Automatic annotation (TrEMBL):
A molecular function (GO) term: metal ion binding
Domain notes: The twin CX3C motif contains 4 conserved Cys residues that form 2 disulfide bonds in the mitochondrial intermembrane space.
Source lineage: Eukaryota, Metazoa, Chordata, Craniata, Vertebrata
UniProt KW keywords: Chaperone, Disulfide bond, Membrane, Metal-binding, Mitochondrion, Mitochondrion inner membrane, Protein transport, Translocation, Transport, Zinc
Function statement: Mitochondrial intermembrane chaperone that participates in the import and insertion of multi-pass transmembrane proteins into the mitochondrial inner membrane. May also be required for the transfer of beta-barrel precursors from the TOM complex to the sorting and assembly machinery (SAM complex) of the outer membrane. Acts as a chaperone-like protein that protects the hydrophobic precursors from aggregation and guide them through the mitochondrial intermembrane space. Mitochondrial intermembrane chaperone that participates in the import and insertion of some multi-pass transmembrane proteins into the mitochondrial inner membrane. Also required for the transfer of beta-barrel precursors from the TOM complex to the sorting and assembly machinery (SAM complex) of the outer membrane. Acts as a chaperone-like protein that protects the hydrophobic precursors from aggregation and guide them through the mitochondrial intermembrane space.
GO annotation, cellular component aspect: mitochondrial inner membrane; mitochondrial intermembrane space chaperone complex
Assembly notes: Heterohexamer.
Family as reported in the entry's similarity comment: Belongs to the small Tim family.
Membrane topology label: Peripheral membrane protein
Species: Xyrichtys novacula (Pearly razorfish)
Annotated ranges, domain Tim10-like: 9-69
InterPro entries: Mito_inner_translocase_sub, Tim10-like, Tim10-like_dom_sf
Keyword Membrane: yes
Protein name (Swiss-Prot/TrEMBL): Mitochondrial import inner membrane translocase subunit
Intracellular or extracellular location(s): Mitochondrion inner membrane
Protein backbone atom coordinates (compact mmCIF):
# COMPACT_ATOMS: atom_id res chain seq x y z
CA UNK A 1 0.00 0.00 0.00
CA UNK A 2 1.51 3.32 -1.04
CA UNK A 3 1.59 6.19 1.39
CA UNK A 4 -0.13 9.21 -0.06
CA UNK A 5 0.93 12.70 0.94
CA UNK A 6 -1.69 15.40 0.88
CA UNK A 7 -1.24 18.42 -1.35
CA UNK A 8 -0.95 20.72 1.66
CA UNK A 9 1.82 18.50 3.09
CA UNK A 10 3.62 18.57 -0.27
CA UNK A 11 3.39 22.37 -0.35
CA UNK A 12 4.67 22.57 3.23
CA UNK A 13 7.61 20.28 2.41
CA UNK A 14 8.43 22.29 -0.70
CA UNK A 15 8.34 25.56 1.27
CA UNK A 16 10.67 24.04 3.87
CA UNK A 17 13.01 22.91 1.10
CA UNK A 18 13.02 26.38 -0.45
CA UNK A 19 13.68 27.98 2.93
CA UNK A 20 16.63 25.67 3.54
CA UNK A 21 17.94 26.22 0.02
CA UNK A 22 17.73 29.99 0.44
CA UNK A 23 19.55 29.89 3.79
CA UNK A 24 22.37 27.73 2.41
CA UNK A 25 22.67 29.90 -0.68
CA UNK A 26 22.77 33.09 1.37
CA UNK A 27 25.28 31.71 3.88
CA UNK A 28 27.63 30.41 1.20
CA UNK A 29 27.31 33.63 -0.80
CA UNK A 30 28.05 35.81 2.23
CA UNK A 31 31.03 33.65 3.18
CA UNK A 32 32.52 33.27 -0.29
CA UNK A 33 31.73 36.24 -2.53
CA UNK A 34 33.86 39.24 -1.64
CA UNK A 35 34.58 41.11 -4.87
CA UNK A 36 31.74 43.02 -6.49
CA UNK A 37 33.92 45.06 -8.83
CA UNK A 38 33.58 42.56 -11.69
CA UNK A 39 30.85 40.42 -13.18
CA UNK A 40 33.16 37.43 -13.33
CA UNK A 41 33.17 34.88 -10.56
CA UNK A 42 36.71 34.41 -9.32
CA UNK A 43 38.17 30.93 -9.00
CA UNK A 44 38.50 31.36 -5.21
CA UNK A 45 34.85 32.34 -4.92
CA UNK A 46 33.74 29.40 -7.01
CA UNK A 47 35.90 26.96 -5.05
CA UNK A 48 34.69 28.37 -1.74
CA UNK A 49 31.06 28.10 -2.84
CA UNK A 50 31.48 24.49 -3.92
CA UNK A 51 33.23 23.60 -0.66
CA UNK A 52 30.52 25.35 1.34
CA UNK A 53 27.76 23.42 -0.40
CA UNK A 54 29.63 20.10 -0.14
CA UNK A 55 30.12 20.66 3.58
CA UNK A 56 26.42 21.38 4.04
CA UNK A 57 25.40 18.29 2.05
CA UNK A 58 27.80 16.02 3.97
CA UNK A 59 26.61 17.46 7.28
CA UNK A 60 22.98 16.93 6.32
CA UNK A 61 23.69 13.36 5.24
CA UNK A 62 25.54 12.62 8.48
CA UNK A 63 22.74 14.07 10.61
CA UNK A 64 20.19 11.99 8.71
CA UNK A 65 22.21 8.83 9.28
CA UNK A 66 22.57 9.53 13.00
CA UNK A 67 18.86 10.32 13.24
CA UNK A 68 18.03 6.96 11.63
CA UNK A 69 20.44 5.12 13.93
CA UNK A 70 18.90 6.80 16.95
CA UNK A 71 15.38 5.80 15.91
CA UNK A 72 16.44 2.21 15.26
CA UNK A 73 17.97 2.06 18.74
CA UNK A 74 14.86 3.58 20.28
CA UNK A 75 12.59 1.11 18.47
CA UNK A 76 14.79 -1.81 19.54
CA UNK A 77 14.75 -0.60 23.14
CA UNK A 78 10.97 -0.27 23.09
CA UNK A 79 10.60 -3.71 21.54
CA UNK A 80 12.94 -5.21 24.15
CA UNK A 81 11.02 -3.48 26.90
CA UNK A 82 7.80 -4.93 25.55
CA UNK A 83 9.42 -8.35 25.32
CA UNK A 84 9.19 -8.58 21.56
CA UNK A 85 12.87 -9.17 20.78
CA UNK A 86 14.59 -12.50 21.09
CA UNK A 87 11.43 -14.57 21.34
CA UNK A 88 11.05 -17.55 19.00
CA UNK A 89 8.16 -17.41 16.60
Amino acid sequence: MALQVSESDQIKQFKEFLGTYNKVTENCFMDCVKDFTTREVKAEESSCSESCLQKYLKMTQRISMRFQEYHIQQNEALAAKAGLLGQPR
